[in-house]
Structure formats: C-alpha cells, structure tokens
C-alpha cells in the first residue's frame, strides 16, 4: 500500500469548482480506497512567506492537504491522470504499512 499527499492552495479553482472539490471527486471516481483532506493552521511554500489564516485581520487562505491510500500501481496511475488536469501543487507518495 502507498499513501499520496497533495498540497494545494485553498483559493485554486478548476473551472468554476474549487480544486479541492475537483480532486476529492476525481479520487472518488477513480475508486480510491480512502481519502481525507486537511486545512492548515499555518503554512509557507517556495515564496517563504508564512500564511496564518486564523490571525485577526489576516486575508491569507490556508493551504490544504489531501491524502489518499490504495495499492501502489493504482495510486501512481491516479496521480499520473490527475497531473493531466492539475498544474502546480506538490504531490508526495510514501510506502506505508497498515497494522
């Protein structure tokens, strides 16, 4: 089994749908075993500016992480297909052991 993590900005869109919603629906349609999304409390990326969306008067949007698990080949094929739709964002794949 492997786990993939997708890091995206909350304000990104795919047409008229949020990228987050698009990715979650895409994973569901691919028959992925399970997926969960998380919203960050603070984050920074290549621009090295810390985003703190929960601070008073902050207009920063939090980063999101979507994680999903399935068999190695299925995860890799799904990520490959997803990349044809989605530019940017960081995707990491880890081998995991389910206990």
Descriptive notes:
Helices cover 25% and strands 32% of the residues. The protein has 99 residues and is an alpha+beta fold. The longest helix is centred in the C-terminal third of the chain and has 14 residues, at 72-85. The chain has a 4-stranded antiparallel β-sheet. The mean pLDDT is 87.
Keywords:
25% helix; 32% strand; 99 residues; alpha+beta
In short:
The chain has 99 residues and is of the alpha+beta class. 25% of the residues lie in helices and 32% in strands.
Q: Which SSEs are present, and which pair or pack?
A:
Blueprint (H helix, E strand, L loop, with lengths): L1 E8 L3 E2 L2 E2 H11 L4 E6 L23 E8 L1 H14 L4 E6 L4
Antiparallel strand pairs: 1-5, 1-6, 2-3, 4-5
Structural class: alpha+beta
Whole-number mean pLDDT: 87
Rg, alpha carbons: 14 Å
- Provide the low-confidence segments as ranges: none
């Amino acid at each position: 089994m492997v786990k993939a993590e997708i890091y995206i900005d909350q304000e990104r869109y795919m047409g008229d749908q949020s990228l987050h919603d698009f990715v979650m629906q895409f994973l569901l349609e691919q028959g992925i075993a399970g997926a969960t999304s998380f919203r960050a409390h603070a984050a920074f990326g290549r621009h090295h500016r810390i985003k703190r969306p929960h601070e008073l008067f902050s207009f920063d949007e939090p980063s999101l992480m979507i994680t999903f698990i399935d068999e190695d080949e299925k995860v890799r094929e799904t990520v490959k297909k997803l990349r044809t739709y989605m530019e940017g964002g960081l995707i990491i794949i880890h081998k995991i052991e389910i206990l």
